[in-house]
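forwarding from the other thread:

> can someone predict this with adenosine-5'-triphosphate?

sure thing
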Amino acid sequence: MATLAELAASRTRLGEASIDHLLRLTASWSLLSDLSFSDLLLMAQVEDATGDECFVVLGQMRPNNRATLIDDDLLGSTQPAQNWPLVRQSFDSATRVEGEVELDNVAGAVPVWCVPVRHDGAVIAVMVRLQGPLRGPSSLYEGQYFSVFKRLCAMVSDGSFPYREDAVAGPGLPRVGDGVILMDRLGQVEFATPNAVNALHRLGVYTSSEGRTFDELGVRAKAIGRSLEFGIPTLEEIDVGHDVAILVHGVPIISEHRVTGVLTIVRDVSDIRHLDRVVLSKETAVREVHHRVKNNLQTISSLLRLQARRSEEVETKTALKEAERRVRSIAVVHEVLSREPGEDVVFDEIVRSLVLLVEDTVLALHPVEIVVNGELGVLSTDLATPLAVALAELLTNAVEHAFVDFGGVDNHDVGVVTLNLYQENGQAIAEIRDNGRGLGEDFSLEIPTSLGLSIVRDLIRAQLYGEIVMNSVPLVDGGGTFVRVSVPLDARL
Ligand SMILES: Nc1ncnc2c1ncn2[C@@H]1O[C@H](COP(=O)(O)OP(=O)(O)OP(=O)(O)O)[C@@H](O)[C@H]1O
Ligand SMILES: [Mg+2]
């Protein structure tokens, strides 16, 4: 589906600045559509080799407060000029042309306005307003809306709407149905719709607003003052305490270079802000929980360390130290989660911390360099925690066992442990390779004697439904030990 910019560039002769102007118009014309209760089309002249004159539809807008007249998506469609003589007339005369048009699928003639869109002195497109059937007796405000619409149309034709400031435009803005206050050139309220009156109530204004300025009413909306003074669109949120938040959008109405009024669209966003706060506080709570879990695990590991120091027996000492290290590797995951809570976690941050942890615990014994290549990206926490613990075990093993009683590595002064991480065919892969002494003759991964590898086996196979292979690397290939862990990324854990 082509965008306005693409269509304009490929089908018309409009330059970049003109296309920008049209983009700004369509970013803010929902306002025009709602104020006039009408469908809007934006038509530009097609540069066609055939010679038949045509228009291309560069934009289509439906009103929010009325049923649409046009069910079809006309964006990008080519309209023969003979079907739209009034559009032709509007281009030629550079004035607004009113009349009627016959539409496919619509019974009867449809009242139409053709409003020339001027930019830098030239008419670059025509905005077509197609009025739907009137719905019963018109409400009190429809007449007011319509007169504002007329004033904005005059601005479209003299080039002062859309505004040059495109910062205040787009889908997030309040819409006419949210509540409208029209002010005169002095900032005095001319009328306020019922929804706008409700919003004023929420701001503590219970007196009639008619004939008074926001200042006189005690509404602190500085931005509206800027719209009045400088003729620029503004957006401001007025907060009263924790409970009330009102979004105020100022649309200056300009005639002959002078601000003649401001259309103020207000929207009560208190509920949305309240929800934002709830979500935010939940996130903070989750973060806090992870933080506490991490702290508790660190306390446990400190206790284990203390106990290790106190015990006389070497075996007990070692066992306690190992337990301490394992607890700390789990704490690493919670540490990362306490910074960025959620279902997913950036695994590479965990890897970084794990490497530091392993270096910290065992490297003091002999010089070993740990090199990490690649990354696993974002993983679910269900996968990340067991995987982190397993990797910590394997890295520790390499650092702890590979270079013991080892005469040295050819051409190396230090041992090197390499951790390769990547994703492949829906699997997270971790390869740990060292250039140490390799596994003993009688080594078998399947014989559950020692605790470390039993933990790894259990985590990888039973908990993560993954695979693990472990073997010595022949001396011709550099020697040492190679471990490959692969776990499916989408396993239901
Ligand atoms: N990278 C390696 N290089 C050489 N030998 C290794 C390597 N990894 C493991 N081993 C051998 O495998 C044995 C079993 O390892 P495992 O991690 O299960 O137990 P451990 O490290 O001895 O004790 P712990 O339970 O504290 O981890 C080790 O004792 C060691 O002999
Ligand atoms: Mg071990």
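Residues 346 and 443 are 34 Å apart (CA to CA). thats all i got for now
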